[in-house]
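Hi C.,

You asked whether I'd gotten around to modeling the 493-residue construct. I have! Everything is below, sequence then structure, no commentary in between.
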Amino acid sequence: MHCIIAFSDNKAPMLIQGLKALKDYGFDQWVFEPCSTTDELLNMRDKRPDVVLVDRLLPGEKHSDLLKNLQLMFPVSRIVLYLGKMDEEAGAYERMAKNFGLNNIVKGELPGERPYNLFTALLADIDEVLNGTPRTDKSLSERQEENHQECPPSNNLIDSRDDNTVDEDIITSQNMVKRTKKYKVVRKKTFERIPSKAQEKQQVFGAKGNHCPVRENQGALIATVANKGGVGKTTTAITVAMALADAGIDVVLVDLNLPGPSVHNFFDLKPDSGIEALAGYNIALLGHVLVKAHGRENLTILPGPMDETILPDTMFKQGELAKLINALLSMSTVVIVDTPSNFWDKPWLPEVFQMVDMVLAVVDQSKFSQGDTSKHSRKILKMKVTPDKIKIVLNKFSPKLHNARIVEKAFNERLIGYVPKKMLPKVIATIPNEWDKYNLLGYKGEAAGLDDHMSQWHRLAEEIANLAGFKYNKPVQKSKKRKGNLLGLFKRG
């Protein structure tokens, strides 16, 4: 288990020393990392810790900002808050924390008040905590065994369905732990299915003598996909493109949702023709079809088809889109393509997916999409995309619902045993459920969150910029002064 301890006044090393001494609880086998400010804590988000313990008096970011973004920054981690001695200020902090879905709280002098003290909080199941019924009757051996499980089961997948509709997906999730030993045996055989680097290169970029596309230019090619409509796939493509452009990186946003293009509507563009004018690889018209986004010099839009009389399946011949993508990569640092929701059935998309550097798989937490999420990864692999290129974007995220690790496990459910653990796709960003704000700004051609330096959009844009070989510059952080903020004056008695 990997645990980050964020405590004020450099108390973290002493706390770690004390926990390490508790061998009966198994803490001597844990990996602890200390930090003493919110900036240090947020810089550790890429380490994907199992547990994050945060002191109420941690210096740095405003408490309201930290609590709002804590679960977004550590979506797959168990968050534990330590309040210390309870008083009026600590009570206000607790109410604010619970308002943001943070219920794993320890009170009183260390190790905390019973029955829910620090040891229970560190070892308790996050699902039990979020449901408001943490169990304290488990034996120590049971807790240690659960904490070291490779694939612990999730009750959330069961709770999110009707009691009378237990299907095969649920049974698979429940039995995942029981099948762990079986997987270990199977993996030795199934790992042979994973191609070597040379084979992988041939599979993705095409071997000599066939018609697979070949990347001719540098830069980064990103594709956004979704397992169903309405999860925010196009919003993700647009917002990331805007974030990169605002950072000074040249971006081309391509609308490859040929049956239902919508990118031009967001930017209030009314082009006479779109990508259909480039059919037959009519590259001479490329300059006439590309449109600059208003107010963003570094963002160029390639609109979807404006002529609805042309059938999408017959618009491009084999190899034409690959040549078009290569032409766009030659003139831009990043090319982002937005795809239709049922991308796996579109004949024009395989050659594009075989060229991508990253696929952003956009999913949400709704119980209606959990079953589809487990099928999503296989459909992406069907397009000959290697698993290490797939990144999960959890949209409409609410910390008050289940932990993001549940979505991640559902996404990888059908890959376990066939894909090496290190290659399994992971949640790279969690986007909060603020659709009223998104809709309001959308009418103005703007995107929510780009003015917030802590927004996950910047985390996502930074990953893409690094992939393209560029440094991503976030918006300038606002002053951290806590004038007029009562929480900034909290002192523990």
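If it helps when you're writing up: The CA atoms of residues 67 and 125 lie 20 Å apart.

Thanks,
B.
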